[in-house]
Amino acid sequence: MKSKKSLNIIANSLSDELFLNSPDGKEVISYKTLIRNFKKFIEKSGGDIKSMKDSSGKIFFEESESIFIKAILRESIDKNSYIYKFLKDKDDEVSFDQIKEFMDNIHDYMQSKLPEEECNAYMAYMDQALQYSVIMELHNIYNFIECINLNLQNCIYTFHLKSMINLRKKLEQEFVRITANSILNIEQFCEFVNQASKIFDGDASQLLNYNDFDLLTQIEYSNRDKDTLKYINSNPLVKKYIEEKIGKSIDEIFKGVINRID
User: How many Å apart are CA 197 and CA 244, to the nearest integer?
Assistant: First the structure.
């Protein structure tokens, strides 16, 4: 049976490694800071740090997991890295290229140290946690619109303008369709939470608990809950509609969940 490594040992090992490779022989970062970075990463990614601890309050990882953790922690101290800004709540300042560079760095670090199947599994986790593929598709959509505009520049102005207006109208139609479906899905989800949480005396946190599922499922559904509440609270008309429809405030519907997600 292979021995496991504690988070403390992984963080200490990386801290020593960074110290030995530092040009001036000075401490780069303490292991305690690395541990704090890891815990914040798990929390911001939708995971539950408490569920990772054993009975003694320590966190242990398999050998392959420790390599993945090291890859994350190395990036967490680089001020130009996406993950550094993600942990500092400054990820809105990050460009797509910085996110891609971060994902490439993580992959490159693990590629030479792990079997391909395990490396791909960890990359799938990162994709879920950071919604990287969604961001990539959004980037691609912007690029397509730019390319359409460029390809129309050899046409007369009126045709160019008409083509862009037609494109905008198609996007508007898709916007209306998706928005209507989104509000309907949110209404149904809130109604489900309101009804199903009654068996837990109205405590939705017990209903929306995914600790018994695999990690990717935990992240996917935790992010769904977080993004749904964020959407509701940032759209007053939607919030008012949901509350009037169900007859309860959002705080009452998601009792026990609001503070956990915030």
Answer: 19
251 membership: H or E segment, kind and range = helix 250-253
Tokens read off for 87:
């942990």
Determine the pLDDT at residue 1.
Answer: 41
How far is Cα of residue 199 from the mean position of the Cα atoms in its chain? 30
In our burial notation (b when 16+ CB lie closer than 10 A, e otherwise), range 9-39 reads ebbbbbbeebeeeeeeeeebbebeebbebbe
Q: What percent of the chain has pLDDT over 90?
A: 46
Q: How far apart are CA 105 and CA 119, in angstroms?
A: 12
What are the pLDDT digits (tens) for 68-94? 999 999 898 888 888 888 888 776 667
2: which DSSP letter? P
Mean pLDDT of 102-113: 92
Q: Which two tokens stand for residue 148?
A: 């359409």
> Among 129, 125, 105, 11, which Cα is nearest to 61's?
11
